[in-house]
């Protein structure tokens, strides 16, 4: 996934939170209309997942196009486009700017992942080291209300107004957007656990999700004879290549490696990904397949490609386990499906972020800020959609939050005799 302005297949533009608005000369109504038309047409012609969405994109033009005449400020226009883009119910589609009360990005700006189970909104995972974990939110708890608004009332404003039907994917995304909150309002979460209600304040005293990540690019340690490397949300930073190489070289004599990708929500770029993948290979292999629907729609000619990884010096050939979870996103997902396709690693953990495809970034001609939408479908080498991948060994998180069950399982596998 190479990164440029026009072509960005990861979430490199979204490392951390989107940029805040900057002062700009007021645009004319005609300029706002031109920008909206460019936005709508670009999405219409290039977005590659309409077939699995319930969105009536023609209705989006009618509904939001009618509101453009009332726009007189940049902030109003940003909010209009946020609402229009939200109609896709796709957390891999975003603006490159935001308002103070814009929703945080999912999964980059979240610390809790929930979904509906038998009609109830249930916490599935909690991001280690952030506010939700700190205040005691745990998997298995039921979300009752968010900022004193019952879940049933909090979701409709986040579901969009042009959906033909509200499917499970749209409901779950709306739930996670509601749990993420916005950039300025401290969250109050009321949960039910073991029949009792608890009120939790994950953003007090500090809204950790608003702070830039100051950690090192990666962390490593030796666990007995096993090497453990954790990537700290840095797959878009080319400096990670040298850091990863030197770390792996220093631990080359270990009997196995655990590569932890569970905190890579901001995506990255294909240069870093291929650098990491190349350290585990001794011959060239494909790691993912790309498909370009816009070209087929325009010309009737189907186009798809396989992306190849080449081996790099000093390959690590010992057994490898990759840990993944709900905050393994975009390029982290790409590395995972690549190692799985190459039969080079055992994948352990939960389902990943399930982001749709590869994104391209476009810029509005007058407002000048950008928007990002999936324009390429991504597949495993065997032809299965990347977003449908699940680990071969699914490891549920510890509901008490006291044990890293996935890491323990990985250590047990690498310390056990090899099975053929």
TrEMBL record:
UniProt KW Signal keyword: yes
Segments forming domain Tail specific protease: 204-396
Annotated InterPro entries: ClpP/crotonase-like_dom_sf, PDZ_sf, Tail-specific_protease, Tricorn_C1
Signal peptide: 1-23
Keyword Metal-binding: no
Record key words, sorted: Signal
SMART domains, per database record: TSPc
PANTHER family for the chain: INTERPHOTORECEPTOR RETINOID-BINDING PROTEIN, RETINOL-BINDING PROTEIN 3
Name of the protein in its database record: S41 family peptidase
């Amino acid at each position: 996934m190479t990164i440029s302005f026009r072509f960005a297949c990861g979430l490199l533009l979204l490392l951390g939170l989107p940029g805040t608005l900057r002062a700009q000369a007021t645009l004319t109504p005609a300029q706002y209309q031109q920008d909206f038309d460019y936005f709508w047409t670009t999405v219409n012609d290039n977005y590659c997942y309409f077939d699995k969405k319930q969105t009536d994109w023609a209705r989006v033009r009618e509904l939001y196009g009618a509101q453009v005449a009332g726009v007189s400020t940049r902030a109003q226009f940003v909010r209009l486009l946020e609402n229009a883009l939200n109609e896709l119910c796709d957390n891999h589609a975003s603006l490159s700017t935001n308002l103070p009360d814009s929703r945080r990005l999912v999964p980059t700006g979240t610390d809790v992942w929930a979904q509906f189970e038998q009609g109830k909104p249930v916490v599935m995972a909690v991001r280690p080291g952030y506010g939700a974990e700190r205040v005691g939110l745990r998997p298995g708890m039921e979300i009752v209300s968010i900022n004193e608004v019952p879940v049933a009332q909090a979701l409709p404003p986040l579901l969009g107004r042009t959906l033909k039907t509200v499917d499970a994917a749209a409901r779950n995304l709306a739930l996670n957007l509601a749990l993420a909150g916005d950039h300025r309002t401290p969250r109050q979460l009321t949960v039910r656990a073991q029949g009792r209600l608890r009120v939790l304040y994950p953003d007090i005293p500090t809204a950790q999700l608003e702070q830039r990540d100051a950690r090192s690019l990666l962390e490593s340690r030796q666990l007995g004879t096993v090497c453990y490397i954790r990537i700290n949300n840095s797959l878009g930073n080319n400096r990670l290549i040298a850091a990863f190489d030197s770390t792996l070289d220093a631990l080359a004599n270990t009997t196995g490696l655990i590569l932890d990708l569970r905190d890579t929500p901001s995506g990255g770029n294909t240069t870093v990904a291929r650098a990491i993948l190349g350290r585990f290979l001794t011959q060239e292999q494909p790691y993912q397949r790309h498909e370009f629907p816009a070209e087929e729609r325009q010309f009737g000619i189907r186009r798809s490609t396989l992306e190849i990884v080449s081996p790099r010096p000093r390959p690590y050939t010992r057994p490898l386990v990759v840990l993944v979870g709900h905050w393994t996103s975009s390029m982290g997902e790409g590395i995972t499906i690549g190692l799985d396709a190459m039969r080079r690693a055992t994948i352990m953990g939960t389902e990943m972020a399930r982001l749709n495809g590869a994104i391209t970034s476009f810029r509005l001609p007058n407002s000048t800020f950008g928007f990002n939408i999936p324009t390429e479908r991504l597949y495993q080498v065997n032809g299965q959609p990347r977003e449908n991948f699940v680990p071969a060994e699914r490891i549920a998180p510890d509901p008490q939050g006291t044990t890293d069950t996935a890491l323990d399982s990985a250590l047990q596998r690498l310390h056990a005799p090899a099975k053929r």
